[in-house]
UniProtKB/TrEMBL annotation:
SUPFAM superfamilies: Prokaryotic type I DNA topoisomerase (SSF56712), Zinc beta-ribbon (SSF57783). GO terms for biological process: DNA topological change. It comes from the Bacteria. The record marks 31, 142-143, 146, 158, 306, 501 as: Interaction with DNA. Residues 166-171 are annotated as: Interaction with DNA. This is DNA topoisomerase 1.
């Protein structure tokens, strides 16, 4: 018997069909061991010895492998993924099995394949090798570095910067990129400029546009026309000018296709074209790689998706050329197959680019067998791979130079345009862009030198320079790759950690640096500057690559790193909080103390008039407070919710900043928007117990109008008398959202708007439906939910529900809440199984609680039964 170990059950199921009855394919479910999340897991004093631990879930998987080996296996084949992580998983499995002494007489082999297809798997099985020690060393070095940085630096943050959650080797550098961009945007000062263009006609009456590019022999740069006066002067001169076409230059241009996808370019393009996050893209790609049933056969649809190689295998290139000729004709097949090389730093091209395993498998054939997002991603990969081997597109780029003569001086104009003369690869695929630079469809009419075009109108348009754009997930991944920060497999998880730590947020695909993230970045730049430098992080990645190539010793890399790093950390032990605050205020001053609209010192407290505002570090993070505390109790967050800086009135800690929305016409009191401990709210007037209302989901606090604020403050609202009981039905907002109440019966409403709009008839119906479900909050009242699939090992459906506290997954009495930031619409079975298994293993869930209760009861009975009987003294009375 041959035992084969892979990472996932889906991959195991696919490969098992290829190998037959003499093979038992088992899944490790990813990594089986990890460094325990506590001090001492990596010990620099012992030359970086590491302690590994197996969690309860992995113990079950490893126990299955142990049983299979004890059942008479003669060969153990480690067939994990063909990268560093895959090599590490094989090494961990092997080390664990050696510790259990179950490998006597068992031949150990390592195989790797780039695609889960029958031919690729059988070819790999025919050419086994041993575990690559250099790749394992590179993994160990990377894991030790990440652990040492995280578990050494994070406690420093907790002590010196309350509210900060963690720091990481790659995470902190990625965060710096986002924060640096935010600071650039804040420092940016818009500059006015104008452009001047002429709408013209050829002698044959064909319209075109030409732009002013030079005046009096001087070339005009973008910002040279600085104001309206200059623009109007040029416009007046052009309106009186005589025009003549000097030159017409038509230049052929070739545009070449992009290479097939790497991990990072796939994430970027899927974000731009499909709107998928990097994390979601990798989840879908994993399923396409591991195997999906198409036409009665389970097969991997794409090659391995964690790669920075851009070349395709020779047989794949041959397939591509054949498909291109069949679908589009021989004119779209280049004379020589295209070869590509990567420009990314630290790239390793040992693996192929991401491509379909069979380029002849068209997207329309796959669409019938997969879900929507899987179909879209497969089509994107297929079109990019096929286009990479198509003929170049041919364009003709035309430039027309025009002279405008007026009052003995000349002004120069230029008209440009392009036309596609042969579409080539553009017939199939055009790379997405974050801008609108393409002008292929802007075609100029035919013109010749010496002609005199006719002026129609002159346009003078005002513009202002724009700040640099905030990063999208796609552009951040691109920048990280350019700098050589991280590896293809880490980009998605790095971005996810930044969101989970509330260091960044995503709004309309743009990444915004949160104040918490900016504080961490400034702290690290001031006190751990070297370790958030781009060049240092990239150089460390190069050293890890050299380890994987067997060129340098991994422990020596760790020794060199730890010597400087530990010295730097030790130097912060005597760091005073005052020094931290000074550094933060110095760099973030313009952000947290911007100029006041009415002038004056931005740091003078407007409440007491004498105190000075400064940054404070409290138990729950940073805030702005007055130096006259406790006499003046003014506080506010670093930046106010309405974007108006430095406003606010004295509060008790729950009213850190305000924005006046208007006056209540009934009471005449001010209605204000405030940011409290539990989020934004509106308040009517002042006093000891003013009327307040939280702002429900679906309403944007920054743009909240007075009308809505008054409606919120008017709650609870009387809907009407119930026709049967005669009692009033009330609509209101509660802790768990909008609801209506009749006596002791409460019924949730779908949205906050319904609180203001629901009528009596609808309210009676909703209450009746609630009563029909029966009392209590039991499982029978829960909505059916979305079935994600059957648990691969325990059976029964895994179901996604929308609960009172957010979305969660349920399986056989175990409920597990989805992690923060998870997209419930794209949450899949594999992720759900991982959640419920972790919850079950930790003792959560109904089944576990029952078992625990029974065990506790049995223990109690046993302890009572075994309780020793004290001997009575002679003459003592028997107990009654």
């Amino acid at each position: 018997m041959n035992v084969v170990v892979v990472e996932s059950p889906a991959k195991a199921k696919t490969i098992n069909k290829y190998l037959g009855q003499d093979f038992q394919v088992l899944a490790s479910y990813g990594h089986v061991r990890d460094l325990p999340a506590k001090d001492g897991s990596v010990r620099p004093d012992e030359d970086f010895a590491m302690s590994w631990a197996v969690d309860s879930k992995s113990e079950k998987r490893l126990a299955d492998i142990v049983r299979a080996l004890k059942g008479g296996a003669t060969r153990l084949i480690l067939a994990t993924d063909p990268d560093r992580e895959g090599e590490a998983i094989s090494w961990h499995v092997l080390e664990f099995l050696r510790s259990k002494k179950v490998l006597a007489g068992v031949a150990i082999e390592r195989v790797a394949f780039n695609a889960v297809t029958k031919s690729a798997v059988l070819e790999a099985m025919a050419h086994p090798r041993q575990i690559d020690a250099a790749l394992v060393d590179a993994y160990l070095a990377r894991r030790a570095l990440d652990y040492l940085v995280g578990f050494t630096l994070s406690p420093v943050l907790w002590r010196k910067l309350p509210g900060a959650r963690s720091a990481g080797r790659v995470q902190s550098v990625a965060l710096r990129l986002v924060c640096d961009r935010e600071a650039e945007i804040e420092r940016f000062i818009a500059q006015e400029y104008w452009d001047v263009g002429a709408n013209m006609m050829t002698p044959r009456g064909e319209a075109f546009m030409a732009r002013l590019v030079a005046a009096n022999g001087k070339k005009l740069q973008r910002l040279d026309i600085a104001n309206e006066e200059q623009a109007m002067g040029l416009k007046a001169r052009l309106e009186k000018a005589a025009y003549r076409i000097d030159t017409v230059e038509a230049k052929p241009v070739k545009r070449h296709p992009s290479p097939p996808f790497t991990t990072s370019t796939l994430q970027q393009e899927a974000s731009r074209k499909l709107g998928l996050s990097p994390q979601r893209t990798m989840q879908i790609a994993q399923r396409l790689y591991e195997g999906i049933e198409v036409g009665g056969e389970t097969v991997g649809l794409i090659t391995y998706m964690r790669t920075d190689g851009v070349q395709m295998a020779g047989e794949a290139i041959g397939q591509a050329r054949g498909v291109i000729a069949r679908l589009y004709g021989n004119s779209y097949v280049p004379g020589v197959p295209r070869a590509y090389s990567t420009k990314a730093k630290n790239a390793q091209e040992a693996h192929e680019a991401i491509r379909p395993t069979e380029l002849s498998r068209l997207p329309r054939e796959v669409n019938k067998a997969v879900q929507s997002d899987e179909a879209r991603l497969y089509e994107l990969i297929w079109t990019r791979a096929l286009a990479s081997q198509m003929e170049s597109a041919l364009l003709e780029r035309t430039t027309v130079s025009i002279t405008a003569n007026v009052d003995g001086a000349s002004l120069d104009l230029r008209a440009t345009g392009s036309v596609i003369t042969f579409d080539g690869f553009l017939k199939l695929y055009q790379e997405g862009r974050d801008d609108d630079e393409d002008d292929e469809n802007k075609r100029l009419p035919a013109m010749t030198a010496g002609e005199t075009p006719k002026l129609v109108t002159i346009d003078a348009k005002q513009h202002f320079t724009e700040p640099p754009p905030r990063f999208t997930e796609a552009s951040l991944v691109k920048r990280m790759e350019e700098l050589g920060i991280g590896r293809p497999s880490t980009y998605a998880s790095t971005l996810n950690v930044l969101r989970e730590r509330n260091y960044v947020r995503t709004d309309k695909k743009r990444l915004y640096a949160e104040d918490k993230g900016r504080l961490v970045t400034v702290f690290l730049q001031n006190f751990f500057h070297k370790y958030v430098e781009f060049d240092f992080t990239a150089a460390l990645e190069e050293q890890l690559d050299r380890i994987s190539a067997g060129e340098i010793d991994w422990r020596q890399v760790l020794r060199d790193f730890w010597q400087d790093f530990s010295t730097n950390v030790d130097a912060t032990k005597n760091l005073r909080i005052g020094e931290v605050i000074t550094a933060l205020e110095e760099q973030l001053g313009p952000h947290i103390f911007p100029p006041r609209e009415g002038g004056g010192d931005a740091r003078t407290c407007q409440t007491c008039g004498t105190g000075r505002l400064s940054l404070k570090l409290g138990k729950f993070g940073a805030f702005i407070g007055c130096s006259n505390y406790p006499e003046c109790r003014f506080t506010r967050p670093l930046v106010q919710p309405d974007g108006e800086k430095n406003g606010g009135i004295a509060g008790d800690g729950d009213t850190p900043g305000i924005k006046k929305l208007g006056i209540d016409p009934v009471s005449g009191e001010a209605v204000t928007l405030r940011d409290g401990r539990f989020g934004p709210y509106v308040q009517l007037g002042e006093g000891e117990k003013p009327k307040r209302s939280s702002i429900p989901k679906g309403y944007e606090p920054v743009t909240l109008p007075l009308e809505i604020a008054l409606r919120l403050l008017a709650l609870p609202r009387d809907v009407g008398l119930h026709p049967e009981s005669g009692e009033m039905i009330i609509a209101n907002l509660g802790r768990y959202g909008p609801y209506i109440q009749h006596g002791k019966t409460y019924a949730n409403l779908a949205s906050a708007d319904e609180v203001f709009e629901i009528g009596l008839n609808r309210a009676v119906t909703v209450l009746a439906e609630k009563l029909a479900k029966g009392p209590g909050r039991g499982r029978n009242q829960r909505a059916p939910g979305k079935v994600l699939g059957v648990h691969p090992t325990l059976g029964q459906d895994v179901v996604l529900h929308e609960g009172r506290y957010g979305p969660y997954v349920a399986h056989d009495g175990v409920n597990a809440t989805l992690p923060n930031g998870s997209d419930k619409d794209s949450f899949d079975l594999a992720a759900a199984v991982k959640l419920v298994d972790a919850k079950r293993d930790s003792g959560g869930g109904k089944t576990a609680k029952k078992t625990s209760a029974r065990a506790s009861k049995s223990t109690t009975k046993a302890s009572v039964a075994k309780k020793p009987v004290r001997k009575r003294k002679a003459g003592a009375a028997e107990p009654a």
